[in-house]
Predict the structure.
Amino acid sequence: MSRAAEESNRRMLRARDAMDRGYAQPLDVPALARIAHVSQAHFTRTFRATFGETPHRYLQRRRVERAMFLLRETDRSVTDICFQVGFGSPGTFSRTFRDIVGLSPRSYRRAAVTAPVPTCFTMAWTRPNG
Amino acid sequence: MFTAITHSQIYVLDQDEALDFYVGKLDLEVNTDVSLGFMRWLTVNVPGHPDRQILLEKPGPPALSEETAEQVRELLTKGAMGGHLIFTTDDCRKTYEKLLGRGVEFTEEPTERPYGIDCGLRDPFGNSIRFTQPKE
């Protein structure tokens, strides 16, 4: 492992942090590649090699994890939550949510329990594997 | 049985850079900075609380082989080494603004939680840090 690889890891982590922070924004590969200071061509491949999934999939899981949080902790409507976490349409949201969690947003809400632990851990550990 | 936690440890890539961050930016104070010859024992604490120290340890020989140290560095820079620190603050938003002004980059803005207000950031190496202002 060279210093160059460590630097690459840190850049990819920076882009991943940007997704954790700005999940509700329209984040695309060009924007993320700029944050990581690498070319678009390198970005997706390097991100996948570093974290084991594509940036798109990571962002989807982050958005679904936030949606799970809002379904658990708030009374907001499923449609509101869909847009609030950055999905473009309720159809895409429901499909992606079910695909990753295995339940519809409404079924998840009925079954959910609150976890009394700091957010950094719920963010990492209640994010579904999908 | 036990009465306190006195030392916790996180890995850093560079101890001088760690001091710039933890002392220069976060305002922690150096507790102990001493060379043992083969390693630099460097601990910091929250000002006024020297009873709880954080060891800023650089992975490498003789504690770890070069090869293992490289694996640790790789995990650290991926944000996968653990190394979580959670600090209490009396004013999360004020602390956030102050650190933003010092060029600290956050992973999460101050947000209301069931347990208080908190925000998140990373140290320059990949360790995850939070500040929590507990609910009254």
